[in-house]
Amino acid sequence: MNKIVLLVMSLVVAFSASAQLQTPQPSPSATLKQKVGLTDVTIAYSRPGVKGRKIFGGLVPYDALWRTGANSNTTITFSTAAEIDGQTLKAGAYAIYTKPHKDQWDVFFYSDTDNWGLPKTWDAAKVVAKTTVKVEPIPFNVETFTIDINNISNTGGRLELLWETSYVAIPFTVGTDKKVTASIKKTLRGPSAQDYYKAAVYYFEEGKDINQAKAWVDKAIMMTSKKPRFWMLRKQALIYEKAGDTKGAIAAAKASLKHAKKASNTDYIKLNTESLKAWGAL
């Protein structure tokens, strides 16, 4: 008899477990991963919807702390140190809290990320960085709360918050230049053609010493002279042009065009042809 009772009970428990109702989350969770320079940036947050409600100044009151999303607090993780409004955030995770006002928002990066919503007790010592940014109107309705990273460069980006008809952007920087410069110095003690080329491209794109970029790209071209790379020659042409050496730029562009034609690379054929026309060589 006891065996029968135990069997029935186990069947009831198994049925109950299998019959659990699954429904969509009202504010679904999301994870955004973005590489900025050499830094991995990860944002984890929940995305509530407008659903016909007045959001800012209504559901989200003005002049009060907000968890910046729904459910658990929104977090941002940097794989390297970052800087916001002159304040350094070490590599690690931070909760993002905001205090929306009508015309501007206060944004807080909080070291304690283990909160459901707002901390029970706000600890100012845990505010690693704080900034105030302007609210911009959006000419259309953003139904679902959105966090994105845009205006990405080698050295930083812009953390963007969008919901209802409001847009807020928080600029941040990462220490790419320091890391790359150190890596260049270390690598160039025994560099390959590719190392010289990458160093030259970085200096060219970041507006650093163009003559140094020119010297490095020349070394890369010299080391690959037996098997010229049309993309390296193309970059050499652009570096020469930026350095004010139009004659050298034309020679490099013609060489790049020649080898691009051999490789049937229509993109580089077009780019070099356009440059040569612009520089009066065609």
The stretches of 5 or more residues where confidence is low (pLDDT under 50) are: none
What shape does the CA trace take? Answer: elongated
Radius of gyration: 28 Å
Note the gap between the termini. Answer: 99 Å
Summarize model confidence as the mean pLDDT.
92
Largest beta sheet: strand ordering:
1-2-3-6-7-8-9-4-5
E-strand count: 9
**Topology as H/E string?**
HEEEEEEEEEHHHHHH
- Percentage of helical residues? 25-40%
Strand content: 25-35%
Count every helix, treating DSSP H or I runs of 4 or more residues as helices. 7
- Largest sheet data: 9 strands, antiparallel
Structural class: alpha+beta
Please render the helix and strand layout as text.
Blueprint (H helix, E strand, L loop, with lengths): L1 H17 L10 E8 L2 E8 L28 E4 L3 E3 L2 E3 L2 E9 L3 E7 L16 E24 L5 E19 L1 H12 L5 H13 L4 H14 L6 H13 L3 H17 L3 H13 L4
Antiparallel strand pairs: 1-2, 2-3, 3-6, 4-5, 4-9, 6-7, 7-8, 8-9
Helix pairs in contact: 3-4, 3-5, 4-5, 5-6, 6-7
